[in-house]
Amino acid sequence: LEAAKEVSERNLWQPGPRPRHADDHCIAQTYARIFLIERDPRMIEATIARFDEMIADPRPGPEVGWAEDDNWSWCDALFMAPPTMALIAEATGDSSYLDLMNTMWWETFDYLYDPEERLWYRDGRYVLQADGSGPRTSNGHKVFWSRGNGWVFAGLAQVLDVMPADYPDRPRYEELFRDTAAALAAVQGEDGLWRSSLLDAEEYPIPESSGTGFFTFGLAWGVNSGLLDRESYLPAVRRGWEGLVWAQQADGRLGWVQQIGYAPRSVTADDSMEYGTGGFLLAGSEMLKLANSASD
Asked: Which of 24, 40, 57, 76 is catalytic?
């Protein structure tokens, strides 16, 4: 908590400089969570002002092309901004911030979600055309990037964690969560880790830990929250955690983390990055809850 407050004070409790860019809203998740503990209004004032500007100036949803400053045209954005908006709604008691998130979420869903595979394209460059043409893996499969889907699944869990039970569209999010969980569990590797190309493990057969961390977190959160059947999903959760522990190196770093990118790639044991550690810690937090519930 003290480390989070130190970072927040250094930032003067400000979101990033790009007004509508989802990545620049992510830091405010920390501000909102600290506010919910300490209730100091200055912690969320700038973030509220940022979202009020977006509510007053609605922009059209993602279309063919790249417009990341205006909308969520890449799937990673669904981890960066929606939980922040949901937390601000909880902090203020004002559902307009949840409504803003809701509108933008489903616009991105319409743009990037593949209902047949129940997975998310990373961005418009990978969405197949109506005739089935478009980018495919070397073995002819659709391109679904592990960490990109991990960002979405973890973001969805974090949104549901604070969304009121009576929010009108909550059933849609719960259905989406269950559908995504089923699709992800079906492509988990026997070693517990997912590959960077979800539907084509042969293209990059080396395991990848950042997507695995987010998937393990989401599945474990689903079991802990009661949204996923414990008997059906607990084996996948345990395998995922065992895989993550295997990926942790002797010096404590998490290895096998795909580096910054936007498409499936191979990795090595020495590859590490902060977001991989974050996914590992998220998963670990839910594993502790599982352990505590088992001891009860």
From this structure: 76
